[in-house]
Write a structure and sequence with these properties.
70 residues, alpha+beta, three-stranded antiparallel beta sheet, 1 helix, 17% strand
Length: 70
């Protein structure tokens, strides 16, 4: 599965979340670290859903960039 991930710069680190998996979040000191952490968080989140017998949400979020005049 391929989920959209939002990575945001915080004051001292980076945070990431998955819009299609509420509660699935991660932080890291660098972009590379937060990407690795969110990948692990997604796997852990999906494992937990499976163990609980819950339905795995299908990826449905889209990511688009919109250009505007600055």
């Amino acid at each position: 599965m391929r989920y959209a991930v939002v990575i945001e710069k915080a004051q001292n680190n980076y945070s990431a979340y998955v819009p299609d998996l509420p509660g699935c979040v991660a932080t890291g000191a660098t972009i590379d670290e937060v990407e690795a952490q969110i990948r692990e968080a997604i796997e852990f989140h999906l494992d937990g859903l499976r163990e609980d017998g819950a339905q795995i949400p299908q990826p449905s979020s889209r990511v688009e960039y919109v250009e505007v005049a600055a």
